[in-house]
Amino acid sequence: MRFFLSDGILRSVLAVVLVGMLGEAWAQTPDSLPRRLPIDSVVQNLKEVLISGQGADAFGAAHLRGVENFGIYKGKKTEVVALSEVTANTATNNPRQIYGRVTGLNIWESDGAGLQLGIGGRGLSPNRTANFNTRQNGYDISADALGYPESYYTPPTEALDRIEIVRGAASLQYGTQFGGLLNFRFKRGPEDRKFVFTTRQSAGSWGFFGTFNSIGGTVLKNKLNYYAYFQYKRGDGYRPNSSFDYRCAYASFDYRATSKLALRLDLTRMDYLAHQPGGLTDKLFQDNPRQSVRARNWFRVDWNMAALSLNYTVSEKTQINVRNFGLLATRRSLGNLERINVADFGDNRTLIDGSFRNFGQETRLLHRYGGGALPHTLLVGYRLYYGHSTARQGDGSDGSDPDFRFLHPENLENSDYDFPNRNQAVFVEHVFNLSPKWSLTPGLRYEHITTRSEGYFTQRILDGAGNVIVENKIFDDRSRSRGFLIGGLGAAFKPRETLECYANISQNYRAINFTDLRIVNPNFVVDSNIRDERGFTADLGVRGNKAGLFRYEITAFFVSYNGKIGQVLRADQPPLYNDYRFRGNVSDARNLGVEAFAEVDLMKIFSPRNPHNHLTIFLNTAVVDARYVHTDDPAIRNKKVEMAPPLMLRSGLTYQTGAFRSALQYAWIARHFSDATNAVRTATAVEGEIPGYGVADLSVSYTWRRLTLEASCNNLFDAVYFTRRAESYPGPGIIPADGRGLYVTLAAQF
User: Fold this and answer.
1) Domain ranges of the chain
2) Which residues contact 189 (CB under 8 A, 6 or more apart)?
3) Strand 733-736 to 689-690 pairing
4) Digit-coded pLDDT (tens) for 681-738
5) Distances (CA, A) of 272 to 152, 154, 269, 332, 436
6) How far apart are CA 147 and CA 169, in angstroms?
7) Alpha helix segments (H runs only) across 227-362
8) Which of 153, 317, 390 minimizes the C-alpha distance to 249?
9) How far apart (Å, rounded) are the C-alpha atoms in residues 90 and 158?
10) Which residues contact 125 (CB under 8 A, 6 or more apart)?
11) 325 has pLDDT over 80
12) Integer CA distances (angstroms), 498 to 103, 200, 501, 545, 548, in order
């Protein structure tokens, strides 16, 4: 199904959003009170009440409190997306709308159904969100937090309560990352009902169908809260050979065993099969961005996670949280990985099979002390993580179907590796409230990491005609063990309740992963002295608000990336001195810029007597200068860092009245590059520029009693653009973004 409107009409549309407001009043006449009431009859011991909320007002965004959910965020750049207040296409997890108010994000668009999320901040690569420490409900969900921190699983937005983002200063509490923390918080069952059933049925362009069904409630005398969902999506895709079939299920159980002890169990299962149309060259993209020149490429993911957490209240000032989590998962890619400018002749396809088995445990102790209205807060934590990943690469069948079986499983043609790793960490952060306005937050983290690789790769030497003349199996066994200490300091100044200034500086690191330890062929050489990437991030910002009327935030940032791992072309090895790719710590990089956000409710200004209507407009912009420095290599000296747009501008207009909501958003991303040499165009299309592009999205919803009707038009003006050039799957080459598409959802709750 395609949706076409004239651009003149579309540009005259004024999008509006409605955020429902609930009010409750209670009154009692004096005559209803007894004339005398003994003092001792009203003296009661009240249980501790934990109030959780972000204060998003009508804006759909807020910030984390200084101390929250066994984390310290005072003096840090934090953002919270409140999904209940966002009007967006949640059936397809449209990231342009969902993250439209989050500053400084570059978003990759690899599929139109939201199967994978790719976001990067402040000049870091969006590739599978690997530069964020990605979690759900506080525990890891990536493939391997140390060895392979890529996220093939993305929680469905329809099941989320909010999304929390903490920038690079999160390194002290959450470890290996430069981008910060990305945490998905799921919904809970209602506290006041035993059973609630919600169903959402969606249909859209290119054969899209999605169903989302959830149950939730509180039972066992209000001791057990439960929430569970099942989601299914399928579609034919915007391009030929891009169909998909997706399933995801989740269940959580919160049990309050005693007044001091609470337990939580989370279970998650997800799998999908995606037909991948491959990439395009620049010429093919210009001729027809919807075409596909690969028909035999497939991708399958199977994700299984479990988490058990415990909260124990030692006293009114001391609490303990224990999180145990584990992952059993696989990802398999099958197809022709040859350059996209070379035809597929139907030979045996390449099969890459990866498996991930890991277990982690985090224990945190939160203690408040000191008298008066300014207690200090201490957070101490310990983390233990075991990961075991495998990566096998060899020949698959020469067919066109998704047959994920090796032709010679006992003797693979390319490589067969195991990657065991282990991580232990101890961290501490402390909030010193110096006065009602000033606070300091110092912190330290000690890490010990062991990364190993065990296996072999096959070395082949070809003659001029491409025939194999020498073939050797090279066995490889490497191990890296290291320990180091990082620190940070944050400060916050709050002259009044509606204004806060903050500053922080935190050291960061990113451990080498198993792809950095593996040699895959003689034309690809890994530096034997490759080391972890080290550096720091710094923020200086101010944010303010007037409840329900406006909010703003301006942040200047600096990211120092020492020993950035990358690839450069060399030809310095005898005897033939052929060109080869050298991977190592090629250069330092520094990313600096300014992020700014402002949002105002115009209805509160021009019609303050009507509190139930809202007309809000927001502006989100980021200016980034990211460059390679401190290098003698003229090919990259002072060049712009790849995947770092110098300007990102997002704006939106929302309106609500009664039961009707609507939102119009527009994003403009400036021209940037996909490799360190800043190549503009190459024959393979893997390296080259990513031209500037603008894209708009429109969503509306209407609620009547228990029914809600939603409609979205993605890429409203049918822009032709792309956000990435893939090195391998789902390419290689240019991955075109989806054109204009219409989606409709009917939801009901009982």
Assistant:
1) 185-749
2) 196, 215, 216, 217, 218, 225, 226, 227
3) unpaired
4) 988 888 899 999 999 999 999 999 999 999 999 999 999 999 999 988 888 899 999 9
5) 10, 12, 11, 11, 52
6) 22
7) 282-287
8) 153
9) 6
10) 131, 642, 643
11) yes
12) 20, 38, 11, 5, 12
In sequence order, the 6+-apart residues with CB closer than 8 A to the CB of 46 are none
**Which uninterrupted H or E stretch holds 516?**
helix 514-517
538-597: pLDDT as tens digits: 999 999 998 889 999 999 999 999 988 877 666 666 544 455 567 788 899 999 999 999
Q: Tell whether omega for the bond before 732 is within 30 degrees of 0, i.e. cis.
A: yes
- Nearest-angstrom CA–CA distance, 748 and 707: 5
Please give the Cα distance from 87 to 72 (Å, whole number): 30
Q: What tokens does 502 get? A: 């903050």
Whether 160 and 248 have beta carbons less than 8 Å apart is answered as no
Task: Extract the tokens encoding 302.
Answer: 């199977």
Q: Dihedral (C-alpha) 88, 91, 710, 188: value to the nearest 10 degrees?
A: -80
Cβ atoms 141, 327 nearer than 8 A: yes
Short-list 467, 355, 357, 456, CA closest to 410: 456
Evaluated on CA atoms 509, 512, 514, 520, the torsion sign reads: positive
Contact 141, 460 (CB under 8 A): no
Q: Which amino acid is at 475?
A: F
pLDDT number for residue 581: 62
Q: Is the dihedral of CA 183, 187, 188, 191 positive or negative?
A: positive
| Rounded Cα gap, residues 379 and 223, in angstroms | 28
**Secondary structure (DSSP) of 4-44:** ---HHHHTT-----------------GGGS-S---GGGG--
The confidence score (pLDDT) of residue 342 equals 87
| Pairing verdict, β 244-256 and 224-235 | antiparallel
Structure tokens at 560: 């120092």
Could you give the 3-state DSSP secondary structure of residue 685?
A: coil
* 499-509: average pLDDT: 95
Structure tokens at 444: 């330290």
User: What band does 193 get if pLDDT is binned at 50, 70 and 90?
Assistant: very high
| CA gap 457, 455 in Å, rounded | 7
What distance in Å separates the CA atoms of residue 129 and residue 107, rounded to the nearest whole number? 9
User: What whole-number distance in Å separates Cα of residue 141 and Cα of residue 304?
Assistant: 10
- Look up tokens 């320990």; give the residue: 483
CATH class (in words) of the domain with range 185-749: mainly beta
Helix count and strand count (H, E) for the chain: 6, 37
pTM recorded for the entire structure: 0.90
DSSP 100: T
Which residues lie closer than 8 Å to 169 by C-beta, 6 or more apart? 75, 76, 77, 180, 488, 490, 504, 505, 506, 537, 539
